[in-house]
Amino acid sequence: MTATEKKDPKAPKYTIPTIELMGSGHNGCQGCGPCLTMRYVLKALGPRTIISVPACCWAVMPTVLPYTNMKIPMLYTAFEVTGASISGLRAALDRKGLKDVNVVGFAGDGGTFDIGIQALSGCVERNPNVIYVCYDNEAYMNTGVQRSGATPRGAWTTTTQVGTTRDWEKSPKKNMIDILVAHNIPYAATACISYPEDLIKKLQRAKDIPGTKFFHIFSPCPTGWRYPSEYTIEYGRKAVAARAFNIYEVENGKYKINMKPKQIPLKDYLMTQGRFKHLPDDMIADLQKEVDRDWERLLNKEKHCF
After folding, report:
1. pLDDT-based confidence at residue 102 (cuts at 50, 70, 90)
2. Distance between CA atoms of 66 and 27, rounded to whole angstroms?
3. Beta carbons within 10 angstroms of residue 228's beta carbon
4. Counts for the chain of helices (H) and strands (E), in that order
5. C-alpha separations of 168 from 9, 33, 114, 147, 301 in Å
6. In 3-state terms, what secondary structure has residue 76?
7. Which secondary structure element, helix H or strand E, spans residue 50, and what is its range?
């Protein structure tokens, strides 16, 4: 909200901050979900923010030096060290007395679920006052759509080829929230770019919680998922409605589901994406059972975790 809006009671009331810290001119693909993720994160946290970015789509999207479309400082690091980087940034800022600066690690699913999980684990163990954001587009998109620990079972990638022998992805997606909860993290949450109010509200709340906070943000990718770029927001909503991605938060071990939408069949979400077009009906039925089972498990966690 601008100073003018604060003074004028007749000014429109916005649920999303109007501040823009990510300008136009980025190198992202049309319909890029991670671009919206960054935009909303910065709207929520404001200009007193430093972001550390490893190798990922966002390592190239702010354009090439000496140019940038970002209005906040960014630090580029190696693929595996985001957790260590933000720990060091926080320590240096605290030493200078700059405790009001938000320190954010901003990494993709490959740099979080796989390559960066060791540094993230160490960061959470130290528990510095930082926010770690994983934007999840379910594969290593920047390097050519290779599978990651976030790639859902049955999905096509360039390293899980589709063929008559069913050589596509066979492993289920890692549950990073539960992995972080097992570290006794003070706050962890999922969010989706299709629901920016929920995402921004959680980030604004989290920045006032002492210690390390973790966000798993669902960020559809039209290039890797093989759908028309204008449907990115729709695919985020479909994923939540099909319960392929659930919206919840965990504070000090207590689970709270933030959205319980009327469920749509998983097939309605999968079959309009090129990466799932090869799936036979029996496989879709198995995946539907997995989704239903995971939802019941989440409901039980909400009911029984105190």
Report:
1. very high
2. 14
3. 12
4. 10, 8
5. 57, 24, 19, 10, 31
6. strand
7. strand 49-53
Contact of 240 with 195, CB cutoff 8 Å: yes
CATH 3.40.50.970 fits 3-304, yes or no: yes
**Residue 169 and residue 144 in contact, taking contact as beta carbons nearer than 8 Å:** no
Per the CB < 8 A criterion, the answer to whether 194 and 11 are in contact is no
Helix 33-45 to helix 232-241 angle (10° resolution) is: 80
Count how many Cα atoms sit within 13 Å of the Cα of residue 292 in the half-sphere of its side chain. 11
Average pLDDT over residues 291-300: 97
Give the separation between CA 265 and CA 287, rounded to whole angstroms: 11
Amino acid at 49: T
> Which of the two residues, 305 and 119, has the higher pLDDT score?
119
185-194 pLDDT tens trace = 999 999 999 9
> What is the pLDDT confidence band of residue 161, given thresholds at 50, 70 and 90?
confident
Single-letter code of the amino acid located at 191: A
**Distance, CA of 28 to CA of 109 (rounded, Å):** 17
CB 241 within 8 A of CB 291: no
